C-alpha cells in the first residue's frame, strides 16, 4: 500500500514537472478527462498515435528540406499537420517550434526554417522520452483519480 502511494506521488510529480517545464499544456488535461474505466489507456494510445504520425511528418519534412528548389507549399502543409498533431496532445514546446518554423517560412528564411526544425526535433525527442517515463510510471502505480487533476 505504501509503495503504491509512493509510486502515485512520483507519477503526480512527473506529470506536474511536464507542465512546469513547459512540455505540456491544458490540451493534455482535456485528453485525460476523456479517459475512463472503459478506456483506461486512452491518453497513452492517443500519444502513441501522435508518435507514429510525427515520425512520418519529421521524415517528410527532412526530405522536403533536402530538395532544391524547396517546395514551400509542401513544407507548409507538413508543418501545419505537425502543429495540429502537437496541439491535439498538448505538446507545447513542439507546437511553439512549429509556429516559429512557419514564421521563418513566411519570411522566406530557409536557414531559420532549418535551424528551427532541428530544435523542433530535439524538443520532440525530449518530450517523447519524458512521456514514456511518465506512462511507464503511471502503469506501475496503477489507476488513480488524481491523474486528471489540473497542474498547479
Automatic annotation (TrEMBL):
Work out whether the entry's keyword set contains Phosphoprotein: yes
Q: What positions does the domain HPt occupy? A: 39-134
The molecular function GO annotations come to: histidine phosphotransfer kinase activity; protein histidine kinase binding
Point out residues bearing the modification Phosphohistidine: 80
Keyword line: Cytokinin signaling pathway, Phosphoprotein, Two-component regulatory system
Q: Per UniProt, what is one Pfam family of this protein?
A: Hpt
Q: Does the keyword Ubl conjugation apply?
A: no
What processes does the entry annotate via GO biological process terms? Answer: cytokinin-activated signaling pathway; phosphorelay signal transduction system
Localisation: Cytoplasm, Cytosol; Nucleus
Record-linked InterPro entries: AHP1-5/YPD1, HPT_dom_sf, Sig_transdc_His_kin_Hpt_dom
Q: Which Gene3D superfamilies match?
A: HPT domain
PROSITE patterns, per the entry: HPT (PS50894)
Q: Which GO terms describe its cellular component?
A: cytosol; nucleus
**Anything noted about its domains?**
Histidine-containing phosphotransfer domain (HPt) contains an active histidine that mediates the phosphotransfer.
Tell me, in a sentence or two, what this protein's role is.
Functions as a two-component phosphorelay mediators between cytokinin sensor histidine kinases and response regulators (B-type ARRs). Plays an important role in propagating cytokinin signal transduction.
Q: What is this protein called?
A: Histidine-containing phosphotransfer protein
Species the sequence originates in: Anisodus acutangulus
Amino acid at each position: 500500500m505504501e509503495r503504491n502511494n509512493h509510486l502515485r506521488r512520483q507519477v503526480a510529480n512527473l506529470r506536474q514537472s511536464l507542465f512546469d517545464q513547459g512540455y505540456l499544456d491544458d490540451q493534455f488535461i482535456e485528453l485525460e478527462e476523456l479517459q475512463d474505466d472503459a478506456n483506461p489507456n486512452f491518453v497513452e494510445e492517443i500519444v502513441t498515435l501522435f508518435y507514429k504520425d510525427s515520425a512520418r511528418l519529421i521524415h517528410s519534412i527532412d526530405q522536403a528540406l533536402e530538395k532544391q528548389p524547396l517546395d514551400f507549399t509542401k513544407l507548409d502543409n507538413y508543418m501545419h499537420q505537425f502543429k495540429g498533431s502537437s496541439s491535439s496532445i498538448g505538446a507545447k514546446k513542439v507546437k511553439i517550434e512549429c509556429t516559429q518554423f512557419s514564421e521563418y517560412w513566411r519570411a522566406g528564411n530557409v536557414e531559420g526554417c532549418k535551424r528551427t526544425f532541428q530544435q523542433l526535433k530535439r524538443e520532440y525527442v525530449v518530450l517523447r522520452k519524458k512521456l514514456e517515463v511518465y506512462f511507464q510510471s503511471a502503469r506501475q502505480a496503477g489507476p488513480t483519480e488524481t491523474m486528471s487533476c489540473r497542474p498547479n
